[in-house]
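Might you be able to check the backbone structure tokens below? Thank you kindly.
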Amino acid sequence: MPVRITVDIFSGRPNPSVELSGKEAQEALARLTPAETLTADAAEKTATPILGYRGLIVEQTGKEANKNLPERIRLSAGNIVGRGLAHRASDAGFEDFFFKGLFRRAAGVAKLRGRILEEVERGRAVRENLLIRPLPFPIKIACLCAPRYEPEWWNDAGQKQFNNNCYNYATNYRSDTFAQPGLAAGAMYTALTCAAVLPAAVADALEDSPGANNKCPSEGHLVALVIAPDWDFHWFRKGRNGFWTHKPGGTAVTHLDNSGHLIPDPRTADRGPYTAFCTFMVVKHGHIKIQ
């Protein structure tokens, strides 16, 4: 029963993961066997940040699945949730166990491992004081050309949600490839800075609009690029009602920032580790191509 454990931490870049098999996979699943059921209060208090470290995603990728667990679960603060599941893990310290050992095998993150561990700790500290409650999305018409806010279309807990990231959502372009700025044009960014990601998006036919000042364009719709320096990129898009929404990586589309507030302006929103606001850009419908 092969198992993939993914660190859910990035928004634009693919998340790092570790593959387990054989006895090692069985032992990991045994540690994650559901223990006591979470009470409503306990489940509410285990909210995770929208941007930044959001926990571990554990997937059984083989045919012989452990019947005690859904094929895909999320582990955060010792709690596991999945289809029909909201329980405490048998090993509530599994995250520490993972990061102290198994995580060393994750491909392509040797230089980022220390930074990732710092973000994990920051996310834990934020989570202790975090309680995100649903807020209604205002209904009004301010930007006629903006895409409709249809989170249920993206949030299918399947192909669309898991394989389309913040860039896909901001441009309203489903590619199922976890799209990367500049890749389709052969000009993908080479660094995680505003100076590198911005021209990559321009190569995809997004239009830089630094003077937009949060105002709706006469054609197309407004998006915003932010950066966690040398770490990751993230995008927001302005909706028809004038508020902003976003899709952090393979997680659900949301209209809230990292503090659970509505987003009238991404420049002043709680963006977690995405501290650098780069620019506003305009997406002309039918003009762009991303991959």
About this structure: The chain has a mean pLDDT of 90.
